[in-house]
Every structure is written in C-alpha cells, then in structure tokens.
Design brief:
The complex is a heterodimer of chains A (about 400) and B (about 325). Chain A has about 400 residues and is α/β, with parallel strands linked by helices. Helix content of chain A is about 40%, strand content about 20%. Chain A contains 15 helices and 14 strands. The radius of gyration of chain A is 21 Å and the shape is globular. Chain A starts with a strand and ends with a helix. The chains are: A alpha/beta (about 400), B alpha/beta (about 325).
Chain lengths: ~400, ~325
Amino acid sequence: MKILVLNCGSSSVKYKLFNLETNEILGSGIVEKIGMKGSCLKHMRADGQKILLEGEVLEHQTAIEYILGVLTSKRHGALKSLEEIDAVGHRVVHGGEKFNKSVLITDEVIRKIEECIDIAPLHNPPNLSGIHAIEELLPSVPQVAVFDTAFHQTMPEHAYMYAIPYSLYTKYGIRRYGFHGTSHRYVSKRACDFLGLDYQQTKIITVHLGNGASATAVKNGKSIDTSMGLTPLEGLMMGTRSGDVDLGIATFLMEKEMIGPSVLSTLFNKHSGMLGVSGISSDMRDIKAAIEKGNERARLALEMYEYRIIKYIGAYAAALNGVDLLVFTGGVGENQASTRTNVCNNLNYLGVKIDEKINIATKGKEALISTPDSSIKVAVIPTDEEFMIASDTYEIVKGL
Amino acid sequence: MHEIIVEPIEKYGLSKRSRRRTLFSKIGIVGCGYEGSAIATIAILNGIEVVFLEPTDEKNANAFSRIEQKLDKKIENWGLTENEKKIVLSRVQGTKNYKDFSDCDFVIEAVRYDDQTGERHVKERKEVFLQLEKVLSPQAIIASNVSTVIITELASELRYKERCVGLHFLSNIPESNIIEIVRGLYTSDETYNKVCQFARLINHQYVAVAESAGLVSIRLFLIELNEACEILMEGISTVEDIDRVLTVGFGHRLGVFRMADQMGIEKIVNLMENLFNEYGNSKYKPSPILLRLYRAKHFGVKRGKGFYEYDKEGNIIKQGGEKA
C-alpha cells in the first residue's frame, strides 16, 4: 500500500511517500516559502538524488499539485499515475478534546477540526487547506488525520487542568492538551519493543528535544502528563520558545513596554529560549561552537536547557511514582551525547547509570545507553512521526 | 554524493491551466510618505506584495528606509524577528513608473500632504487616478486614503467609476487595527465587498462610513482637540494633565495633544477648515492655539515642537511647551 504523508505548516508543506508493504520511502521533500518570494520544492528521490525546483508557489493547493506532479513525473517520480496513491495521511496539530486517536477524514471530522481553529489559529488552518487540496485533486483517495494532541487525551483531569477559574475551561476549553503526541507515542512504544519490555506494564519518561521540546510521562501505554500545555509554549526551554515562565512577567511587560498580546506572543515564542538567552542562535550547533569559544551566555543557555530537562524528569518520576525507562528523542535528544550525559548524571538518586562509551557512540540511531546495573533503562530512539502517520493511515484505511 | 539538480518548477504542475493569482496578492501604493509607508508596512507584514511609486530615486530610497525603520521598531519592541524582517522586506519594491502597477489588482493613492501647507492637492490626486486607469485592468480597484469628501470627485473623471473607493487608516495610532471604508456615489457593491476582504487579509476590522468630511474618527478627534484647547485657554488645566485624564482616565493610548503632535498641526488645521467649510458650524473652527502653532510652524513631532517638545527619535523631551 502506498501512502502519502503530508505535514502542512503555515508556509511549508513536508511530504513523504511510503510503500508500507516493502517498507520503502519512495520519495520525500518539502515545499518552502509558500506565498513568498523564493518559494521552492526540495525533493529527495528514493536513490538519494536531491532535486531543487524553483518557481512561484502561491498557495498550499499549488504546492500539493507540484508535489503530486514530481512524484508522478517520469524524471524524478516513483509513481506511474496518481491512482497508485492508496491513502493520504495528514498531520493535524490540534484535535482539542474531540479526537483521542487518528481518524478517517469525513465532513464531520473537517467541521470538528475547524472548531479547533480558535485554540490553534496558526496551525489548524494550513492543515485544513492541505486536506481540502487533496479532496479536490484526489477525490476518491481516503484521507486520515493524525493529531499531535491525541496521545495525551488520556491525561487525568488533575494533570490537564490549570488552576484558574473553572469557567474558562467550560467557556473556551482552556486546559493542557500537549503536543508531539505522535512522537511520544512512537518512541515510547518502540523503546519497549526494542528492549523487550511490556508496553502495558512499563513506566516511561520520554524526552523529545527537537526544534520544540517536550517531556511526557507514559504509564502502561498511556500518557498521564506532558510538559506542553494549551499551546506548544509551556514546559521545557526550546530553540526560540521560553517554556515555563511566570505569567507575572507578561503582565509586567505589558505595562512597562506598552505591548499587546500579539507582541507578547512573539516575544515568548520567537525571541526567547536558547536564542533569547544566548543572543546567538536557536541552533544547538551554533551554541556549542560559541561555548567552545568561551561565550558565557551560550554556556548559560545550555545549562538552563539541561537543568529544565532534569527538573521535568524529576517531576515525572514523582508523577509516575517510579520510572522503568527513560527515552531520548528529537534532533538534540538523538545526537547530543553531552546533554544526555549531563542530564543522566543528575539522576543518580534514581539509580541511573549510563555507559559513557556507548552514549558517545550513539548518534541518530536506536541504542540502550544505560549500564546493565542501572535501575532505570535509558534509551535513544530516533523519532519518526511521518512513519507513525503512515502506519496509522494504513491501519485505518486497510479496513475500508 | 550527487550534485543537486536544479530545475524550474512550472513543468511539474498537474494541469496546464494558467494559475490564477489570488486576489490582493500584489497591491500598489502611490506616494509612500508617512501614511503610504504605514499602509505598505501593514500589507507586507500580512504577506501581501507591495509596489510603491515615488517620483525620484531619492524619494524611493527614503520611502524604503521609512518602511525598514518601522520594521526595526517592531523588532526593538519584540514584535518581529530579524529573519522575518528579511522575508517581509523582500515583498516590497519601489518604482518611478506607473507601468509597474499593471499586474496589481488594488492600488491605493496616498499622495502625501504638502509639508508646508498641510494640503493634499486635488489636481495632483486626479492626475494619479487618471494615470492608474491607463495601466490597470478594468476590474482593479482604485482606492484613495481619505478623510474628506473627495472620492466621488476623484472617481468622476474615470471610465470605470464603480471601482473607486475611499479608505481611511488610522495610521497615527500604533496598532490601531481598524479601517473606515468610504463608499462614494459610484462605488459598486462588488468593489466594497472586495475591499472588506482586503481589510480582513491585513487583519484589520472595518466600518462602513458614508462619504463625509472627517468620517467618524477624524471628526470626533478634531472636536475633542478643539475642546481641549478651550480648556487650556481658560486656564483650567495643563497640556500634560489633560492628556493624562484621557490616557489614564479614558484609557486612550495617546492623549489628544500628543496625538495632534503626531498627526501634524498643519494637517489638523487644514482638516478643520475643510470641516468648517463643509458643515458651516463654528465648532470646527481651529482654536487660536492651533493657529498660533500653525503660524509658528510648530507642526509637532516631525518639527521637534508642537504642544510638546521632541528629540530626533520623537520622544518627548519637554512637557507642556504650549501654554494658554
């Protein structure tokens, strides 16, 4: 079965075409800068050849037309015709309380996703335009929505509620939803398979450290708490996002700097985090290079970053009343051994011991980095959200 | 490792049909002074491409740097990142030639006020409308940034009069996301509806206002300013205290005198005379204080002096320069 996975952002569309029977990736890429100057499509063929297609792409619909055009082209394509696509899986950021698992897209589902626009104004509209584009271009192909928030719908009430007037929950649905759900679900499950543990009987903390960062407590296969909240701003420190802050800062700044809600949002979402503290970059490689040159603020930024992770692991160890397995994933989690070392060295009280040799040797691949006598297993599992979306799509579509 | 293959994207389209540009993907602005550049900045920040017209290279460069300054100010105030600025700036370009408007579906005339007299010359604006009609498709909308009765007159000389509409941005008030949309006698429903759509695209609220001198915003503001001048002349209160009542008490972002300095006293005096001529009511007669500032060329922020005194960045350095 051939499944196309689409991830529509505000000005980009990422795609990956899977053949799930042979476990092959038939092609992948991204359309960037949609609606702006310099828009382009970067495609990678199954043989690894990279292709850059330049030209005007004004809207998501056009972007998706070009993606389908490339995938079916004689020169770079992998398909003879569009009929070969059996299903399309979409990443949808916010499913609110309406979706606790992936679903086949129907008019009813679209209406519900539209209802979630209020709480995800940046993310859900482009997701929807991707769905509409496929509806028009491949009208007979089934589509599946896979939600970032769905995995966390198992959180208990006491974990997802904020201690603010309850009426705000009933009126606007203000509560913790959590994100990166597809990633946390995949790596927690995959780690158990990899280590031969029973997913339904294991207490797991997953730490996803990528562009955004979040930690999740998974108990017996269910998310019971996660660090991101109503929006992906809460929790760990990130590239340009502040993570947890005292809300008093916001009201203080509104008064002192005479700024309104949209500016505040940019301040905490785009000017903060690693970039804001270091003043250098949101990219971990730049931060590390600066630290080597003796830059103090870069060092501080990284220390804060790691400290937050340590705090959250402590909190979730308590929430789970014990931990069996700790999983690192995401760009930094998979590649940056020093961060894993610094975090794990602060978990002695939990009996964590890692094999430094294996840890240093582990980059972007699955590995058990704890020692045999460590009381908690520590694993690195590269995340694969696209694959997860494809396999969810497969599970739903095969029964049709 | 293979070399990257670079090709044009067009041949990978699914259908050969020509791609229709979305409405308002590119707009034009004639005159990129204070107000024109404010409108341009709003548009490019909302993803719309803008081409603006200024008569000389020097004025083009000035206009461009005005827009850049506005974006820098936004960065300074945490509203934008450096990277976003690059993307946003790539959407705007200047021109000296009306022909460069030919693929715009919407052009706004924002010919600036004369910086000596505070007037906007009707003859010049008519000429702009005629030039625009020559290069634009009949469906393209021609708008004028207005606060007086003019749009019907400007439209009257065109062949496709129904495409003309007036807009009023409150460009002197930061983050005032509202537009007054002014229907002239000729304006068609289609034109009006499209302009409403434009307002939504740039994340502005809008109100429909009949063609009238001062519309809603300017008319209310001028009366408030005149009354504030009366209070000042009667020795009841001071410039800064009156402004404080308005900002702290009524929650206005700027006090009425601070606002007047921002707008420019020369513009205000002209607008008031326009309203007085139109309505014939003496409440619109500019207060003697305004006339005194006008004659002394104390036009406000950009001259460094008005009701307050200002440094080069436009920050108040001296309170209450003007006394009754």
